[in-house]
Amino acid sequence: MKVAIYANEREHSQQVKEQLELKLKEAHIELDHENPEIVLTIGGDGTVLHAVHHYLDQIEKVKFIGIHTGHLGYYTDWLPDELDELVQFLKQKQSRISQYPLLSIMLCEDKTCHQLYAFNEMTLLNAFRTQHLNVTIDDLFFESFRGTGVCISTPTGSTAYNKSLGGAIIYPSLKAFQMTEIASINNNVFRTIGSPLIIPHEQVVTLKSENFSDVTITRDHLYETYQNIEKIKVTLSNRHVTFVKRRDVSFWGRVKDHFL
Ligand code: NAP
User: Fold this and answer.
1) CA nearest ligand 1 atom 37, residue
2) How remote is the CA of residue 29 from the centroid of ligand 1, in Å?
Protein backbone atom coordinates (compact mmCIF):
# COMPACT_ATOMS: atom_id res chain seq x y z
CA MET A 1 0.00 0.00 0.00
CA LYS A 2 1.20 3.51 -0.84
CA VAL A 3 0.49 6.39 1.52
CA ALA A 4 1.11 10.13 1.49
CA ILE A 5 1.37 12.46 4.47
CA TYR A 6 -0.19 15.91 4.20
CA ALA A 7 0.58 18.04 7.27
CA ASN A 8 -0.03 21.68 8.07
CA GLU A 9 2.93 23.94 8.84
CA ARG A 10 2.47 24.05 12.62
CA GLU A 11 5.46 22.83 14.63
CA HIS A 12 3.50 20.09 16.40
CA SER A 13 2.09 18.77 13.11
CA GLN A 14 5.58 18.70 11.58
CA GLN A 15 6.90 16.75 14.62
CA VAL A 16 4.05 14.22 14.30
CA LYS A 17 4.83 13.95 10.58
CA GLU A 18 8.48 13.05 11.32
CA GLN A 19 7.45 10.41 13.89
CA LEU A 20 4.90 8.94 11.49
CA GLU A 21 7.40 8.77 8.62
CA LEU A 22 9.75 6.72 10.83
CA LYS A 23 7.00 4.36 11.95
CA LEU A 24 5.77 3.83 8.37
CA LYS A 25 9.33 3.06 7.25
CA GLU A 26 9.76 0.50 10.07
CA ALA A 27 6.47 -1.12 9.03
CA HIS A 28 7.61 -1.20 5.33
CA ILE A 29 4.71 0.97 4.23
CA GLU A 30 5.69 2.89 1.12
CA LEU A 31 5.44 6.69 1.00
CA ASP A 32 4.26 8.02 -2.36
CA HIS A 33 3.11 11.61 -2.53
CA GLU A 34 2.30 11.49 -6.27
CA ASN A 35 0.02 8.44 -6.45
CA PRO A 36 -1.04 7.44 -2.94
CA GLU A 37 -3.87 5.08 -2.10
CA ILE A 38 -4.25 6.64 1.34
CA VAL A 39 -3.56 10.24 2.36
CA LEU A 40 -2.83 10.78 6.07
CA THR A 41 -3.58 14.36 7.02
CA ILE A 42 -2.04 15.93 10.13
CA GLY A 43 -3.76 19.09 11.40
CA GLY A 44 -7.42 20.02 11.68
CA ASP A 45 -10.37 20.03 9.30
CA GLY A 46 -8.76 22.97 7.48
CA THR A 47 -5.80 20.67 6.64
CA VAL A 48 -8.20 18.04 5.28
CA LEU A 49 -9.73 20.71 3.00
CA HIS A 50 -6.29 21.61 1.65
CA ALA A 51 -5.43 17.92 1.11
CA VAL A 52 -8.72 17.26 -0.73
CA HIS A 53 -8.00 20.09 -3.18
CA HIS A 54 -4.39 18.92 -3.56
CA TYR A 55 -5.56 15.42 -4.58
CA LEU A 56 -8.75 16.53 -6.40
CA ASP A 57 -7.62 15.12 -9.78
CA GLN A 58 -7.33 11.63 -8.27
CA ILE A 59 -10.13 11.90 -5.71
CA GLU A 60 -11.84 8.70 -6.96
CA LYS A 61 -8.69 6.65 -6.18
CA VAL A 62 -7.61 8.21 -2.88
CA LYS A 63 -8.89 7.59 0.65
CA PHE A 64 -8.25 9.96 3.55
CA ILE A 65 -7.43 9.37 7.22
CA GLY A 66 -7.15 12.40 9.52
CA ILE A 67 -4.86 12.79 12.55
CA HIS A 68 -5.85 15.86 14.51
CA THR A 69 -3.27 18.09 16.11
CA GLY A 70 -5.75 20.95 16.35
CA HIS A 71 -9.25 20.92 17.78
CA LEU A 72 -11.36 17.76 17.58
CA GLY A 73 -12.23 17.67 13.92
CA TYR A 74 -15.10 16.44 11.82
CA TYR A 75 -12.85 14.57 9.44
CA THR A 76 -10.04 13.68 11.82
CA ASP A 77 -10.40 10.46 13.86
CA TRP A 78 -6.90 9.82 15.19
CA LEU A 79 -4.73 11.46 17.87
CA PRO A 80 -0.94 12.00 17.64
CA ASP A 81 -0.33 9.53 20.51
CA GLU A 82 -2.06 6.75 18.55
CA LEU A 83 0.48 6.47 15.70
CA ASP A 84 1.47 2.83 16.49
CA GLU A 85 -2.19 1.81 16.46
CA LEU A 86 -2.69 3.73 13.23
CA VAL A 87 0.23 1.94 11.52
CA GLN A 88 -1.24 -1.44 12.59
CA PHE A 89 -4.64 -0.28 11.28
CA LEU A 90 -3.03 0.60 7.92
CA LYS A 91 -1.64 -2.91 7.60
CA GLN A 92 -5.14 -4.37 7.81
CA LYS A 93 -7.60 -4.43 4.90
CA GLN A 94 -9.40 -1.06 4.78
CA SER A 95 -13.01 -1.99 4.09
CA ARG A 96 -15.06 0.49 6.13
CA ILE A 97 -15.39 3.79 4.36
CA SER A 98 -17.52 6.95 4.47
CA GLN A 99 -18.12 8.98 1.35
CA TYR A 100 -19.05 12.66 1.21
CA PRO A 101 -20.09 14.47 -1.98
CA LEU A 102 -18.36 17.46 -3.53
CA LEU A 103 -20.29 20.54 -4.62
CA SER A 104 -20.21 21.13 -8.38
CA ILE A 105 -19.73 24.78 -9.43
CA MET A 106 -19.96 25.58 -13.15
CA LEU A 107 -18.62 29.10 -13.49
CA CYS A 108 -19.19 30.74 -16.89
CA GLU A 109 -17.34 33.91 -17.93
CA ASP A 110 -16.65 35.35 -21.38
CA LYS A 111 -18.35 32.37 -23.08
CA THR A 112 -16.06 29.86 -21.30
CA CYS A 113 -17.25 27.64 -18.47
CA HIS A 114 -14.97 26.20 -15.78
CA GLN A 115 -15.90 23.16 -13.70
CA LEU A 116 -14.92 23.76 -10.07
CA TYR A 117 -15.53 21.78 -6.89
CA ALA A 118 -15.85 22.47 -3.17
CA PHE A 119 -15.92 20.08 -0.23
CA ASN A 120 -17.50 22.39 2.40
CA GLU A 121 -19.03 25.23 0.44
CA MET A 122 -18.79 27.95 -2.14
CA THR A 123 -19.64 31.54 -1.32
CA LEU A 124 -20.31 34.41 -3.67
CA LEU A 125 -19.41 37.65 -1.90
CA ASN A 126 -19.17 41.32 -2.74
CA ALA A 127 -17.23 43.25 -0.12
CA PHE A 128 -17.49 46.61 -1.94
CA ARG A 129 -21.10 47.11 -3.00
CA THR A 130 -24.55 45.54 -2.78
CA GLN A 131 -24.56 42.46 -4.96
CA HIS A 132 -27.64 41.77 -7.06
CA LEU A 133 -28.37 38.15 -7.92
CA ASN A 134 -31.18 36.54 -9.87
CA VAL A 135 -31.64 33.13 -8.28
CA THR A 136 -33.16 30.34 -10.39
CA ILE A 137 -33.84 26.81 -9.15
CA ASP A 138 -33.98 24.45 -12.13
CA ASP A 139 -36.24 26.37 -14.55
CA LEU A 140 -38.02 28.44 -11.91
CA PHE A 141 -37.00 32.05 -11.37
CA PHE A 142 -37.02 32.09 -7.56
CA GLU A 143 -35.94 35.50 -6.28
CA SER A 144 -34.04 38.68 -6.87
CA PHE A 145 -31.40 38.91 -4.13
CA ARG A 146 -29.64 42.04 -2.90
CA GLY A 147 -27.00 41.91 -0.21
CA THR A 148 -23.47 40.72 0.45
CA GLY A 149 -23.85 37.28 -1.11
CA VAL A 150 -24.82 33.65 -0.66
CA CYS A 151 -23.23 30.50 0.72
CA ILE A 152 -23.99 27.14 -0.91
CA SER A 153 -22.80 24.17 1.12
CA THR A 154 -22.63 20.38 1.08
CA PRO A 155 -24.01 18.32 3.99
CA THR A 156 -20.46 18.03 5.38
CA GLY A 157 -19.94 21.77 5.00
CA SER A 158 -23.21 22.42 6.82
CA THR A 159 -21.34 22.49 10.16
CA ALA A 160 -18.80 25.04 8.88
CA TYR A 161 -19.47 28.53 7.42
CA ASN A 162 -23.10 27.58 6.73
CA LYS A 163 -23.69 27.08 10.45
CA SER A 164 -22.30 30.53 11.27
CA LEU A 165 -24.86 31.95 8.83
CA GLY A 166 -27.76 30.30 10.65
CA GLY A 167 -28.03 27.38 8.22
CA ALA A 168 -29.24 23.94 9.30
CA ILE A 169 -26.94 21.03 10.07
CA ILE A 170 -27.66 18.39 7.44
CA TYR A 171 -27.21 14.71 8.26
CA PRO A 172 -24.37 13.53 5.96
CA SER A 173 -26.33 10.71 4.31
CA LEU A 174 -28.98 13.11 2.99
CA LYS A 175 -28.46 13.85 -0.69
CA ALA A 176 -29.04 17.57 -0.58
CA PHE A 177 -27.24 20.88 -0.54
CA GLN A 178 -28.07 24.15 1.14
CA MET A 179 -28.17 27.84 0.23
CA THR A 180 -27.93 30.48 2.96
CA GLU A 181 -28.04 34.24 2.56
CA ILE A 182 -25.22 36.54 3.63
CA ALA A 183 -26.58 39.91 4.82
CA SER A 184 -29.57 40.17 2.47
CA ILE A 185 -31.43 43.49 2.20
CA ASN A 186 -35.09 43.13 3.11
CA ASN A 187 -37.44 46.14 3.04
CA ASN A 188 -40.53 47.41 1.18
CA VAL A 189 -38.63 47.36 -2.10
CA PHE A 190 -36.36 44.33 -1.91
CA ARG A 191 -37.46 40.97 -0.56
CA THR A 192 -35.74 37.57 -0.32
CA ILE A 193 -36.98 34.35 1.21
CA GLY A 194 -34.79 34.92 4.29
CA SER A 195 -34.64 31.22 5.25
CA PRO A 196 -31.91 28.77 4.33
CA LEU A 197 -33.03 26.50 1.47
CA ILE A 198 -32.30 22.76 1.53
CA ILE A 199 -32.28 21.62 -2.08
CA PRO A 200 -32.34 18.00 -3.38
CA HIS A 201 -29.18 16.86 -5.17
CA GLU A 202 -30.77 16.58 -8.60
CA GLN A 203 -31.74 20.27 -8.74
CA VAL A 204 -29.53 23.10 -9.96
CA VAL A 205 -29.26 26.63 -8.58
CA THR A 206 -28.28 29.27 -11.14
CA LEU A 207 -26.98 32.67 -10.07
CA LYS A 208 -27.02 35.50 -12.60
CA SER A 209 -26.54 39.25 -12.34
CA GLU A 210 -26.28 42.28 -14.63
CA ASN A 211 -23.16 43.27 -12.64
CA PHE A 212 -20.72 40.74 -11.25
CA SER A 213 -17.74 43.13 -11.07
CA ASP A 214 -15.45 42.69 -8.04
CA VAL A 215 -17.31 39.59 -6.92
CA THR A 216 -15.31 37.06 -4.92
CA ILE A 217 -15.99 33.35 -5.21
CA THR A 218 -14.65 31.20 -2.38
CA ARG A 219 -14.40 27.43 -2.51
CA ASP A 220 -13.44 26.13 0.93
CA HIS A 221 -10.13 27.93 1.70
CA LEU A 222 -9.62 29.03 -1.93
CA TYR A 223 -10.79 32.39 -3.29
CA GLU A 224 -10.67 34.44 -6.46
CA THR A 225 -12.14 37.80 -7.53
CA TYR A 226 -13.89 38.01 -10.90
CA GLN A 227 -15.10 40.83 -13.19
CA ASN A 228 -16.96 39.17 -16.07
CA ILE A 229 -19.00 36.25 -14.78
CA GLU A 230 -22.01 35.40 -16.92
CA LYS A 231 -23.62 32.83 -14.63
CA ILE A 232 -22.83 30.23 -11.97
CA LYS A 233 -24.61 26.87 -11.82
CA VAL A 234 -24.35 24.96 -8.55
CA THR A 235 -25.48 21.46 -7.62
CA LEU A 236 -24.29 18.41 -5.69
CA SER A 237 -21.81 16.50 -7.87
CA ASN A 238 -21.53 12.74 -8.12
CA ARG A 239 -17.85 12.93 -7.16
CA HIS A 240 -17.06 12.01 -3.56
CA VAL A 241 -14.32 12.32 -0.98
CA THR A 242 -13.68 8.94 0.68
CA PHE A 243 -12.54 8.51 4.28
CA VAL A 244 -11.44 5.25 5.90
CA LYS A 245 -13.63 4.81 8.95
CA ARG A 246 -11.87 3.98 12.20
CA ARG A 247 -15.06 3.02 13.97
CA ASP A 248 -18.71 3.89 13.71
CA VAL A 249 -19.09 7.28 15.34
CA SER A 250 -22.53 8.75 15.73
CA PHE A 251 -22.83 11.92 13.65
CA TRP A 252 -25.03 13.58 16.25
CA GLY A 253 -22.51 12.56 18.93
CA ARG A 254 -19.81 14.34 16.93
CA VAL A 255 -22.00 17.44 16.59
CA LYS A 256 -22.65 17.37 20.34
CA ASP A 257 -18.95 16.97 21.22
CA HIS A 258 -17.96 19.73 18.83
CA PHE A 259 -20.56 22.37 19.55
CA LEU A 260 -22.20 21.78 22.93
P1 NAP B 1 -9.64 27.28 8.77
O2 NAP B 1 -9.13 28.10 9.89
O3 NAP B 1 -8.89 26.05 8.39
O4 NAP B 1 -11.15 26.85 9.01
C5 NAP B 1 -11.96 27.67 9.75
C6 NAP B 1 -12.60 26.85 10.86
O7 NAP B 1 -13.61 26.01 10.29
C8 NAP B 1 -11.62 25.93 11.59
O9 NAP B 1 -11.90 25.97 12.97
C10 NAP B 1 -11.93 24.55 11.01
O11 NAP B 1 -11.65 23.50 11.89
C12 NAP B 1 -13.43 24.67 10.79
N13 NAP B 1 -14.01 23.75 9.81
C14 NAP B 1 -13.61 23.50 8.54
N15 NAP B 1 -14.45 22.63 7.96
C16 NAP B 1 -15.40 22.31 8.89
C17 NAP B 1 -16.53 21.46 8.88
N18 NAP B 1 -16.90 20.79 7.79
N19 NAP B 1 -17.29 21.40 10.00
C20 NAP B 1 -16.96 22.09 11.12
N21 NAP B 1 -15.90 22.92 11.18
C22 NAP B 1 -15.12 23.03 10.07
O23 NAP B 1 -9.78 28.26 7.57
P24 NAP B 1 -9.55 27.96 6.07
O25 NAP B 1 -8.33 27.15 5.83
O26 NAP B 1 -9.69 29.24 5.36
O27 NAP B 1 -10.81 27.01 5.81
C28 NAP B 1 -11.88 27.44 5.08
C29 NAP B 1 -13.12 27.08 5.79
O30 NAP B 1 -13.33 28.02 6.82
C31 NAP B 1 -14.29 27.22 4.86
O32 NAP B 1 -14.60 26.03 4.18
C33 NAP B 1 -15.40 27.71 5.75
O34 NAP B 1 -16.31 26.69 6.07
C35 NAP B 1 -14.73 28.19 7.01
N36 NAP B 1 -15.05 29.61 7.20
C37 NAP B 1 -15.94 29.92 8.20
C38 NAP B 1 -16.34 31.22 8.37
C39 NAP B 1 -17.31 31.52 9.47
O40 NAP B 1 -17.76 30.57 10.12
N41 NAP B 1 -17.68 32.78 9.64
C42 NAP B 1 -15.88 32.23 7.56
C43 NAP B 1 -14.98 31.89 6.54
C44 NAP B 1 -14.58 30.56 6.37
P45 NAP B 1 -10.14 23.08 12.26
O46 NAP B 1 -9.73 24.05 13.35
O47 NAP B 1 -10.27 21.68 12.73
O48 NAP B 1 -9.27 23.22 11.04
Assistant:
1) 161
2) 32
Tens of pLDDT, residue by residue over 172-228, are: 999 999 999 999 999 998 999 999 999 999 999 999 999 999 999 999 999 999 998
Same domain? 14 vs 57:
yes
Distance in angstroms (rounded) separating the CA atoms of residues 260 and 257:
6
Q: Are residues 27 and 118 in the same domain?
A: no
Is 45 labeled as catalytic in the residue annotation?
yes
Instruction: With CA atoms as reference, report the closest residue to 104 among 94, 115, 95, 113.
Output: 115
> pTM of the predicted model, to two decimals?
0.95
- CA of residue 116 to ligand 1 center, whole Å: 19
* Cβ-contact 234, 122 below 8 angstroms: yes
**Helix, strand or coil for residue 207?**
strand
Task: Please indicate whether residue 160, judged by its CB atom, sits closer than 6 Å to ligand 1.
Answer: yes
Is the C-beta atom of 48 inside 6 A of ligand 1?
no
How many Cβ atoms from other residues are within 10 Å of residue 223's Cβ? 11
The domain that contains 111 carries what CATH number?
2.60.200.30
Domain check: are 225 and 122 in the same one? yes
